[in-house]
Every structure is written in structure tokens, then in C-alpha cells.
């Protein structure tokens, strides 16, 4: 009897551990790789990465940054309008673009003043202003030569059980002195399927 109880208990424990192992199969994947989850109903990390890479490459290939009077030119990031059905943090796109452009040495981005006179990064602006005040320095504002603005669009269609979602990322680079758009481009990412899946 005792052997039977022991065998039953051991089997139950083994089954429990096996179930836990099956459910707890979390793992790291490459954010830029093909093992990420593809969702039809939202913009995924690979979408942000792809859009940023393509738009930065387009901007650099245009050679428009070399037209600034001096390099690195100062660029402010204006508001990126979200015309999708989702609540999204557009900084997922603009931050990647800012980092990539800063690395080229052709652009520095300001976090203290945007084209509408408001701080893009309020915390950084407040800290900088407080530091200058405590040091008794006169505050100086560097006006941007360029402003970067954009829009996110979404288009959804369905045929039978197949859904298709297209996200359009639009950007414009404008010179502050005359308000002219010196570069504009857009990139589209289309996803199709019946449900979310892994891989793209």
C-alpha cells in the first residue's frame, strides 16, 4: 500500500514539474531577428526598427544634411501625429532615428526646445535650467536649424478569415528659417494572416 502511495505521489510530482517546465518556456530572442512575435493588431518592435532603419537610410542618401551652414546641425523633433487606432509611444520611432543621426556626426538633437517653443524632453530641460541657475549662468537657447515631424497611418482590410494591416510611417525634415520641407519620405509595413504568429 505504501509503495502504491509513494509511486502515485512521485508520478504526480513529476507531472507537475513537467507542466511547469512547459508553461515557463520564456527565452530571449533577437529584437531585430525573425523570431519575434508578429501581431496584426499593433505595431511591433520589429516594425519600429525596420521603419527607423529605412527612413534614416533615405535621409542620409539624400545628402540634405550637408546643406546646413555648419555641421553638426541642430535638429528638434516635433510632434509625430498618431492617426492609427492604437495608443502608441511614437518615441519608439523618433528615439531610434535620433540615436542613428547623432552617431553620424551630422546632427545633434535638442531636448530643450521644439519648434512650438515647448521642451521635447521636459525633465532634461528642467534639469539643465536648474543647473544653469544654480551655477549663476545666463541661459542660452540654441535654436534648431531643422525640425523633424511625421505621421503614423493605419489601413486594415479583411478577406474571409485573412486579415491585412498596413502601417505607414511618414517623416518630413523642415528648415526652421523658411519652413520649407527639404526632405520627405515614407515607408510601409504590411502584415497579413489569421492571427498573431512568431516570425516575419
List the helices and strands and how they pair.
Layout (H helix, E strand, L loop, with lengths): L1 H22 L13 E2 L6 H17 L11 E11 L7 H14 L2 E3 L12 H13 L11 E14 L2 E14 L5 E13 L3 E2 L2
Parallel strand pairs: 2-3, 2-4
Antiparallel strand pairs: 1-7, 4-5, 5-6
Helix pairs in contact: 2-3
Description:
This protein has 200 residues and is of the alpha/beta class. It has one domain: Rossmann fold (3-Layer(aba) Sandwich), CATH 3.40.50. Helices cover 33% and strands 30% of the residues. It has four helices and seven strands. A five-stranded mixed β-sheet has the order 3-2-4-5-6, covered by helices on one side. Strands 1-7 form a two-stranded antiparallel sheet. α2 packs parallel to α3. The protein is elongated, with a radius of gyration of 25 Å. About 9% of the residues have low confidence.
Question: Rg, please?
Answer: 25 Å
Q: What is the CATH topology classification name?
A: Rossmann fold
What is the CA–CA distance across the termini?
A: 56 Å
CATH class: Alpha Beta
What's the shape?
Answer: elongated
User: What spatial order of strands do you see in the largest sheet?
Assistant: 3-2-4-5-6
Helix vs. strand class: alpha/beta
CATH architecture: 3-Layer(aba) Sandwich
Report the order of strands and helices: HEHEHEHEEEE
Low-confidence stretches: 113-130
Biggest sheet statistics:
5 strands, mixed
| Helical proportion, percent range | 25-40%
Number of strands: 7
Number of helices: 4
Q: Domains counted in the coordinates: how many?
A: 1
Mean pLDDT: 80
What proportion strand?
Answer: 25-35%
